[in-house]
Amino acid sequence: MTLLAVKELSKTYRQGSPVISNITFDLNKGECLALVGESGSGKSTLARCLLRIEQIDRGKISLNGSALEQLSERQLKPFRKNIQAVFQNPAASLNPKLKIKDALLDPYEQYKSELNLAHFSYPSKEASVNQLLEAVELPTSLADRYPHELSGGQRQRVTIARAISIEPELIILDEPTASLDVISQDAVLRLLTDLRKNLNLSYLFISHDLAAVNQVSQRIMVMKDGQIVDQFEQEHLLAEDRHAYTKELVSTF
């Protein structure tokens, strides 16, 4: 069943060439759909447009059949609880003045009157924080620490815990492992796969790393110069009919 439907999405900055042009795809419930391409191909701009951080020039964005592209910020609020994001730099995503426990509970405090949670309960602040830390395989002793006291891998797990805390239907993962060492990367990718299955999440996984994409996704889209040039099931990555640019990417990993 389709969760996110995007049709002919385009975005141009000032009077330049389009950053993204005529982007069309569907993302199914429970699926990890990957978007891969080199730096500067338009992947992060697409993410910001889908999150409505950026205004689009034209096109349609539909979540569960509801059109989002023309909604005001006030009208968007009921939908924002269903779309969360995890970005490349966890240090920039966490308020350095907030303890981890307060950062984790912030989304819940924003949306608690609108939530109908199936997996997490919030009986008390401490119990809730412990649930979230355990869900991302972090010790509960980290709750009273500040972001700068954690490693990069731990900070990224905290941002993931914060994203899942309100059980969104879709998480946009924009280069979530790019700033991590190889061991932390692998651990985070395995964690994301487990969370998707256990919490019935859907992911748009954006990366320049085809090896990471191949590890976590069911379907893959390839972006070049702001356009989707190839779409296929993950098991068809090495098929002969892949686009020439896809074959070029494959040859480098």
UniProtKB/TrEMBL annotation:
Q: Which residues form the ABC transporter domain?
A: 4-250
Keyword Transmembrane helix belongs to the record? no
- Give the record's keywords alphabetically: ATP-binding, Nucleotide-binding, Transport
Report the GO molecular function annotations.
ATP binding; ATP hydrolysis activity
What InterPro entries does this protein's entry cite? Answer: AAA+_ATPase, ABC_transp_ATP-bind, ABC_transporter-like_ATP-bd, ABC_transporter-like_CS, P-loop_NTPase
CDD domains annotated for this entry? ABC_NikE_OppD_transporters
GO:BP terms for this protein? transmembrane transport
Q: What is this protein called?
A: Peptide/nickel transport system ATP-binding protein
